[in-house]
Amino acid sequence: MPGISIYDLFFSPQQQRQKSAGACSSQHALISGPPNCGKTSLLLQFAYNHAMNKDSIVTFICKQHAFDVKPPFLSQGVQPDSDVFTRITIKYVHDYEELLKYFAAFHVQSELPRAVIIDDFYDLFDERKCHERFGHMRARETAMVKTLALAHDAIIYANESLGPQYECKLLVSDTHTGDGPRLQYIYQRWLHQIFTIRSLDNSRFSVSGGKVLQKGTHDDSRAIYSLVQNTLVLEQFDCH
């Protein structure tokens, strides 16, 4: 199975077959970038791309009212009233405990999604609540590990159940303020592909792949995009 590549953030699987097979990648990925870099917009485009197939449904998980506070930008040509959005389920959660409940009951869903997306994963883990449950110094990290492990197993279950002609993907986002993802040592245990966003100026950004940890390969693809006039615009795509 091809897994997740940078292509998925901008092109549908049908468009990818016309352009290129893409780099070797993982079905579990993290996209990390600085504040206000359009991560949620990329996640929504990823969801839209995978819901274009009329047989597919996608689950998009985020904190309650997240879209109301800061609506994501749509790509050029994507209409907000498109029927594709009817196949994207927006699931609002308050914290990681509701996320755990979702993945614990993943196997009883009447129809399994082809993609599960979690926006601002780290923000779901309140330090106080994690400490109340686990009661030690690394309570938040422990909660993150348990949640990622359960999510990882759920995606494996979905792929075994869907059969070889379909696949289920997990894409998680987080915000970083330095050069790379915070708590990367935790993420990389469960999310084997990490995409990193860097700011080029106030409205232009680059997103690049990296080492696919489980497979030992490297994704050198890079995309440059901008956020202008409430629109996500792909400016350049380099595949090496």
Automatic annotation (TrEMBL):
SUPFAM superfamilies listed in its UniProt record: P-loop containing nucleoside triphosphate hydrolases
UniProt-listed InterPro entries: P-loop_NTPase
Protein name according to UniProt: AAA+ ATPase domain-containing protein
High-level lineage: Eukaryota, Viridiplantae, Streptophyta, Embryophyta, Bryophyta
